[in-house]
Queue: 3 jobs
Job 1
Amino acid sequence: MIPPDHPRYRSLVARERLAQYAASGIVTLEGLTAHGRGEAFDYLIGEKTTISALQAEKTAAALLLSAERPLISVNGNTAALAADLLAPLQEKSGARVEVNLFHRSEERIRKIGSLLADAGVRVEEGVAERLLPLSHDRALCLRHGIYAADVVLVPLEDGDRCAALRAMGKTIIAIDLNPLSRTARTASLTIVDELTRALPHITDFCTTLSRDEAGRLAASFDNRWFLSQALEEIQERLSHALD
Ligand code: PTJ
């Protein structure tokens, strides 16, 4: 039982949830360590959505709305933390959803698929083929899913696949609390924010952006600017950390 008045309530609930999903095989032990790294960077950005992250979230909505075949790629951590946030985002953005795992097993694919379906997400189905230029199992994807998508939202990604998807000419939106990660630097657009804060903002922007504004935003953004803003926020916080 985590008391709601605990100063770190939100973080403790997320950890407990991940631990439970690790026990049921949805999240991997590696996924738990990835979460810890994310939490460390969240401290550095102040555990809140920064102004530049909100702008990145608006731009992400614009990219999804302007896409011909938008897709959200879901791994174990994303499903465990945000299954209930993905259904409204899918509805408002019109994106397909595909499960794609680094530590892939058919059992995990099935379990994550049913967790998402129970939360109201329509998950792409079919026979995965080795279609991405990668030597590990993230190469396996659906021909009508990730392979055919033009814009792919990849929360909590590993850098390799991000680079491979970009090399295939796709626009990649990453959500990653670490602005220095290979993913953050390789993606077309990186949202430096915590997953469960970022997704509802993207959903909201999908409902409020006009088609014109979405087109304008999608046509002109600079990922280096978003990353440099995130690093500046961190530097600013660190320089006043003990005030
Ligand atoms: O479920 P699988 O088998 O596909 O495995 C998923 C993991 C997360 C294990 C895999 O994708 C992985 O190893 O990822 P990385 O390379 O550790 O990268 C994860 C990134 O996400 C790190 O840079 C973290 O800082 C960041 N991160 C972790 N938790 C969050 C986060 N970013 C935003 N919100 C979070 N909650």
Note: The chain has one domain: 51-239.
Job 2
Amino acid sequence: MKLSYKPILLELRHPFRLATGSRTHTNVMLTEIHLKGLVGYGEAAMPPYYGENHDTAAAFLQRAALVLQQLPDPEKEDKLSGRSIQRIMVEVDAIAPGNYASKASIDLALHDLWGKTEGQPLWQLLDVEQKSMPPTSFTLGIDAPEVLHQKMLEVDDFQIIKIKLGSEDDRGIIRTIREISDKPIYADANQGWKNREAALDLVQWLASQNVRLIEQPFPKDDLDSAAWLSARSSLPIIADESFQRLTDLDRVADCFHGVNIKLMKCAGIGEGFRIARAARAKGLQLMVGCMTETSCGISAAALLAPFCDHADIDGCWLIRNNPFEMPVLENGKIRLNDDAGLGLRVHV
Ligand code: MG
């Protein structure tokens, strides 16, 4: 198997405003794995806060290319399958710690290639059912009501709004949204809340505003505060920054009502499915999320969505220069298509 990779900058449709400034691009590494005339597509989406970038990804993927090159030919000795991909990913994982998005880019490309060698869409190979697909939320950056209104019109298909909280005036933000829409809201505090009692007050008020869940209320290592709030909140409290990989599950299971699985945090589709099974066995709610990503990462995340209670996989609607065709959205739900593998079509 031959691995190749290409760095690109995804241009955000609207800059992300953060306390530290605003971000207009996301670093992405597009990967391809070639085998017998077929090509599998993968992607590493690397927002700055997880520590990966084009240089770290290139260094990692260079080493991974050698590992893949030395592997037995799956056509002859070890046909590509969910199981053989898991074995390959154990070797990829052992190359170096961290580098989860880079690892995910290999896992995605291997899965896409598996589907293509079988001539089947991945959703079929993984027993994914369209009828269980939840609607995905759409992230709305905060702006003046008239600008928000315009943004909402652009994405009218989406049935759920996601809002970033953790500001000085979270109630004001929600009131602004409520001036233009009564759609349900997913609220993400992004570790921004500091005080337990104030957070509980706010959560109860948010529940009255048709907010449906809260992501990551407190700093990621403050699990005591998360557990305190989860014990009292009428809304589900979901771990995002506190939770990355399967090995984190035991640590957070008693502190949150659910976990947000992102393929770029957990090194890909294979582990994403294992997390989903393990988290369900613990009675946790499941959310599937994303970074700003191309259709590649989003189509992969959409495979996991039907096993989840909540989906926030709008990444490719947030960018201008998606190298692949957009997924089809129906009533706010991503439609799994019948093309082999991840079903991606490259723009020509
Ligand atoms: Mg989040």
Note: The chain has a mean pLDDT of 94.
Job 3
Amino acid sequence: MTLPTQEPTPSTLTSKKVNIQTFGCQMNEYDTDKMMEVLRHENYTYTDNCKEADLILVNTCSVREKAEQKVYSLLGRLRPLKEKNPELIIGVGGCVAQQEGKSILNRAHNVDLVFGTDNLFDLPEMIEEVHRGNRIVQTERKAYKQKVRNFIPDFAFENISKPGLKAYIAITKGCNNFCSFCIVPKTRGLEVSRKPENILEEAASLIAQGTKEICLLGQNVNSYKAEGVDFVELLGHLNEIDGIQRIRFTSPHPKDFHEQLADAIRDLEHVCEHLHLPLQAGSDTVLERMKRNYTLEEYLEKVELLRSRLPHASISTDIIAGFPGETESDFEKTIEAAENIRFDQIYAFKYSPRPDTPAANYDGQLEEAVKAERLNRLLALQEKIVAQKHQKLMGKQLEVLVEGTYPRDTSSRSGRSREHHPVVILNSDANIGDLVDVRITGAKKYSLEAIAL
Ligand code: SAH
Ligand code: SF4
Ligand code: F3S
């Protein structure tokens, strides 16, 4: 890991502009913020406008085929910029970069630099190499054997340029689960946990800089363990930080969701009453072929574990429609599960074969039309459930963290409740960052309306 020099070197004295395009999950958004911090120390400032950038970085996602295609079409759209300005440096990072490495340089001739998910803190040296006229691929993994490693250097969270009201903190990276459909263990590597004191320092630093809500990140966040501290204990320590208002985390894996964690969500004042618990499928045959390590019944027990303690907690999930070999009756079990559990939100996806994952070679790959029809059926059901759930929330009192002015009506404010419901507070002059108690008075398709109490 490279620490940036405190004093700018002569080559960095003039300010340069960087634009970063981010695809994928929260982990990538977090990595983008860290890239920005590394580059800020190299005298780069951020620009939204890629036409005026000296450096464009594309932080990529390869979880589904569509995400990957988007990257290549963006690289194609950047070609004219490079033709106009040959000094422009274009770099590709993130999961597609880790997976494809050198072949990106072969496929996209305007790319100067490809860097993997473990290499973002080496950006200054890589950029220097590009200035020397080389095209670079750096996707080397850091030592796997170290299961505990502080993979975020202190400078990336101390005195950051734009502390957000809400901030992510990666507590683990990588995944040891190897679900049969998933590319993530390949792109992010095996699971590594950060030392608890290092995480607490990042959290305290963000809170001191004005952040109100932190969201802990990990591909399998609740399997966190370092120096004898497990996920529940870590939540307990974070809950004690002076000034912290809200704590969220994503994504917990059902197999590691247990009573102690359900108790912690109930008992720790700042931990929000929302759980994102990916189900993926409702049929045990499919779950087994996905290598998810739980049955539907076990998953339902986890839901019950939370709801018995916190009946009003919200639960969201991820579902894959059209996994190889999924029969109509398998998929009906997913529909039935969604009807019974009544999730607050479902992120549903058509199965997408990923390179070098076992499921990509399974028999029974389904037609796009079958996958699409199943996906739409699930989404239509979920729309009805959400509308019913919104009606049940009428008149209820919730606490909203104000995140901004509502764009369509500047006399209103928008934010999220502790349960993660998007809420518009009508006729409100609350400030960004305020916690406002509201009463729910109405509902739109994707949000609730409320008045401040
Ligand atoms: N670690 C999280 C998931 C991370 S990937 C978990 O285990 O739940 C985010 C979501 O993308 C997954 O939950 C899954 O629903 C979806 N996904 C991953 N690979 C996919 C694939 N090959 N096709 C379709 N959806 C996929
Ligand atoms: Fe992928 Fe499974 Fe790991 Fe989630 S738990 S990141 S779905 S391998
Ligand atoms: Fe995509 Fe990588 Fe995240 S594949 S979902 S950016 S871990």
Note: The pocket of iron/sulfur cluster (ligand 2) is lined by residues 175, 177-179, 182, 184-185, 219-220, 253 (CB under 6 Å).
